[in-house]
């Protein structure tokens, strides 16, 4: 950077006209911002507005209220919300812990075929959520599943349709998502850093503790947030697998969206959506400053 | 390096066990039916079931449109952030992260509220025709809008990571001083260096669209994932067989995309 600037300063002003000013950069950003405002901003505002609105059945007039939000934080709705947060936090933490060694093994693998195969597989599996995933696990570990029957797991107290059953299923797409997220950062770790640490007498553990992990921290946190958001938002898998055995907020929203609510609570689905947004927003508010603080190492 | 090997194989082994056993068990479950012995009925039934081709085609069209739109929006923007508008970086970062805090089910709640405005308030305005057009069941463009928003965080992340490894400014300056125009510099100098990131983005978007269920289901459209659920609820063997098939299908598509990327890599390398 410095070298370029000096070069420009020293160069004789022979051909200043050739060095045209670049096109204003923000012009290229405008379409993106306009698109998000329409495709994302409008529905988000509609949700926000609806969460605070109640429609009078008799007159059809709308009025503003906090009743929807209050209703969404009571009873079964509250249980579902805390259930979702707990499930997402546990699965995201486990996914991060298990995804990191796998990503490191992939990135340091010298066989290009292995690397590409695992990364491609991760791309598939990270999005293998939804109903197919639920069906695959029901066929494997469900009550009549192949493993359950052959290993007599039910006798040992195994139940797929429970909190830990869902964690095991969620990890199936969370670990690959972590691998995809963290692999570029791991590739950014320079061999010189490890060599420098070794030359100074550091052990492998010390290198990871004092060099690699601090550099990776923002990417790891970013991955953790992605995983949390992914688990928190998952709907189809849980819906197909557990029905309502494990209370989750997404199941409650779908239920409410299909009209399964008390009269006067038609907009509770929107209020619940707002609750989800607030929880996820809180996580982001923690993550963004942290990420900005230490992203410079991999630049 | 050599001393790391056993550790690496242990990790790969455990991962393979966890990720392959459910797939293998699903296949066993579909072909080894209690009381019938080995049979492939579950698989032959799928192909003869109504709606297989049309729903799959719809999903692929939606995926192609989504990939095109998301890349057209994000590639110029992220490159510009590196070159001329670093001060907009936090803005774009927040905008591209916002969809993460609005889960699909909350997003679809908002979309269906907006779509209700069409018949409720806008029926006498030209905008109403737009509302009708984007909900055309043959090609519901509203799903493309939703999918692009849902893909934004992942694609932004992939492109940003790719750009981080490339000295865009030097590349563009070199291309410009060789007489390239701005579009030429972008297409011939920057994009080839971003091939990995672009492919990664396309992977993520394709897989996202092919597997997407929540939004399309709650808005009442029938792409592939929704078709699977509709057809699969009836019989355990058939539903698992469709799941296995959908995974293989996604995998094949991604492999095709990956090998296409690999080929262009060899032809375009330092020519």
UniProtKB/TrEMBL annotation, chain A:
Keyword Membrane attached: yes
Membrane topology annotation: Multi-pass membrane protein
TM ranges: 26-46, 161-186, 224-248, 268-290
Main location: membrane
Highest taxon of the lineage: Bacteria
PROSITE patterns membership: ABC_TM1
Keyword Lipoprotein: no
Domain ABC transmembrane type-1 as annotated: residue spans: 81-287
GO biological process, one term: transmembrane transport
CDD domains xrefs: TM_PBP2
Compartments it resides in: Cell membrane
Keyword terms, alphabetized: Cell membrane, Membrane, Transmembrane, Transmembrane helix, Transport
GO cellular component terms, A-Z: plasma membrane
Family per similarity comment: Belongs to the binding-protein-dependent transport system permease family. CysTW subfamily.
Designated name of the protein: ABC transporter permease
Organism taxonomic ancestry: Bacteria, Bacillati, Actinomycetota, Actinomycetes, Kitasatosporales
From TrEMBL, chain B:
Membrane-spanning ranges: 54-79, 91-119, 139-159, 203-228, 240-260
Localization annotation: Cell inner membrane; Cell membrane
Membrane disposition: Multi-pass membrane protein
GO biological process: transmembrane transport
Main location, first listed in the record: membrane
Stored Gene3D superfamilies: MetI-like (1.10.3720.10)
Assigned keywords, A-Z: Cell inner membrane, Cell membrane, Membrane, Transmembrane, Transmembrane helix, Transport
Family matches, as InterPro entries: MetI-like, MetI-like_sf
Residues forming coiled coils: none
Pfam families per UniProt: BPD_transp_1 (PF00528)
GO cellular component: plasma membrane
Every ABC transmembrane type-1 domain range: 56-257
Stated family: Belongs to the binding-protein-dependent transport system permease family.
Protein name: ABC transporter permease
Origin species: Streptomyces mangrovisoli
């Amino acid at each position: 950077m410095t070298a370029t600037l000096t070069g420009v300063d020293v160069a004789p002003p022979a051909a200043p006209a050739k060095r045209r000013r670049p096109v204003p950069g923000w012009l290229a950003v405008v379409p993106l911002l306009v698109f998000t405002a329409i495709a994302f901003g409008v529905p988000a505002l509609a949700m926000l507005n609806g969460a605070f609105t109640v429609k009078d059945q008799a007159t059809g007039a709308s009025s503003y209220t906090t009743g929807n939000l209050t209703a969404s934080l009571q009873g079964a709705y509250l249980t579902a919300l805390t259930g979702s947060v707990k499930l997402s936090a546990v699965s995201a933490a486990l996914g991060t812990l298990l995804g990191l060694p796998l990503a490191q093994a992939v990135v340091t693998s010298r066989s290009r075929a292995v690397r590409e195969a695992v990364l491609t597989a991760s791309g598939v599996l990270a999005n293998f959520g939804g109903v197919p995933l639920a069906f695959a696990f029901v066929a494997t570990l469900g009550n009549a599943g192949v493993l359950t029957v052959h290993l007599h797991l039910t006798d040992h107290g195994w139940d797929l349709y429970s909190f830990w059953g869902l964690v095991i299923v969620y990890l199936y797409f969370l670990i690959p998502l972590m691998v995809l997220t963290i692999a570029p950062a791991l590739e950014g770790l320079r061999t010189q850093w490890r060599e420098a640490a070794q030359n100074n007498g550091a052990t492998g553990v010390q290198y990871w503790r004092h060099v690699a992990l601090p550099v990776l921290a923002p990417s790891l946190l970013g991955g953790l947030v992605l995983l949390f958001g992914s688990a928190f938002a998952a709907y189809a898998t849980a819906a197909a697998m557990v029905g309502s055995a494990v209370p989750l907020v997404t199941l409650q929203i779908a239920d409410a969206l299909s009209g399964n609510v008390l009269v006067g609570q038609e907009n509770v689905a929107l209020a619940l959506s707002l609750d989800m947004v607030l929880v996820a927003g809180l996580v982001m508010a923690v993550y963004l400053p942290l990420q900005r603080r230490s992203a410079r190492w991999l630049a | 390096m050599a001393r790391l090997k056993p550790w690496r194989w242990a990790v790969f082994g455990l991962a393979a066990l966890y990720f392959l056993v459910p797939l293998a068990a699903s296949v066993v479950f579909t072909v080894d039916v209690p009381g019938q012995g080995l049979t492939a009925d579950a698989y032959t039934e799928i192909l003869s079931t109504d709606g297989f081709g049309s729903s799959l085609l719809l999903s692929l069209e939606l995926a192609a449109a989504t990939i095109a739109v998301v890349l057209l929006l994000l590639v110029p923007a992220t490159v510009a952030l590196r070159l001329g508008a670093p001060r907009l970086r936090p803005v774009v970062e927040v905008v591209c992260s916002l969809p993460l805090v609005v889960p699909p089910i909350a997003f679809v709640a908002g979309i269906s509220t907006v779509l209700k405005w069409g018949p409720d308030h806008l029926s006498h305005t030209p905008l109403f025709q737009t509302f009708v057009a984007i909900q055309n069941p043959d090609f519901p463009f509203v799903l493309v809008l939703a999918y692009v928003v849902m893909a934004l965080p992942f694609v932004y992340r992939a492109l940003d990571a790719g750009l981080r490894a490339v000295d865009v400014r030097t590349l563009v300056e070199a291309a410009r001083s060789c007489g390239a125009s701005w579009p030429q510099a972008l297409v011939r100098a920057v994009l080839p260096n971003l091939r990995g990131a672009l492919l990664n983005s396309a992977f993520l978007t394709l897989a996202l669209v092919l597997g997407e269920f929540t939004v399309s289901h709650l808005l009442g459209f029938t792409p592939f994932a929704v078709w699977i659920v509709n057809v699969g609820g009836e019989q355990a063997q058939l539903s698992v067989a469709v799941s296995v098939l959908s995974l293989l299908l996604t995998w094949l598509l991604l492999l095709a995309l990956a090998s296409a990327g690999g080929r262009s890599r060899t032809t375009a390398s330092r020519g």
